[in-house]
Amino acid sequence: MALYMIGIGLNDENDISVKGLEIARKCDAVYLENYTSILQCPKEKLENLYKKTIILANREIVEKKAEQTILRDAKSKETAFLVIGDPLCATTHVDLMLRAKKLGIKVEVVHNASVVSAVGITGLEVYKFGKITSIPFNNKDVKAPADVYKMNKKNGLHTLFLLDLDPENNKFLTIKEAVEYLVKNGVSEDELFVGCARIGSDNPAMFAGKAKEIAKKDFGKPPYCLIIPAKLHFIEEEALSLL
Question: From CA 171, how far away is CA 211, in angstroms rounded?
Fold first, then answer.
């Protein structure tokens, strides 16, 4: 028996790897984590392809009730834990893996694409990104994201901001709100921002501009992220000019 942590990619049911699909189909219990990101397709499409009933796992189930659900199942039967993107890019997933191992549960990880690598579609060099940070909904007294940006800028590194989301309540922090937060916390309005929506999907939206330009842009549906680049290579400059 084992817990299989399977990355299913960033777009739809077809982004899962062949290996991941084969494992999901053989599992007796299949959970889909649905609070760190959102799919660009209905859950039913995954169920039709995987030939399994999928149990949605919100933050409470994963972080507080895993021993009564996911890990309980993994002790006695083959159990899949599906993650949008890559399984171990979020601390909450690493925590689940460690808890499973402490209970003596075998854990196997099947990796996939994540936003961390998919940001390369902007033309920015992935290895020039510094520490990644998140901007939460309730950010009035939160300074950490702006501090991360300042540290990255000092080191000549791009900054990727992941924007908060609450799929269960259809609530998503917008790129406009993220830019406003950063400007209020010391980021210059003249900085170059790169707003991104649905990276990894069939219809990503990307736009580069200063604060006022970004705030007026309609990026469409979520999920969203925001980038503040550091000093650009000429290839990066050309790529951003074509967004």
Answer: 22
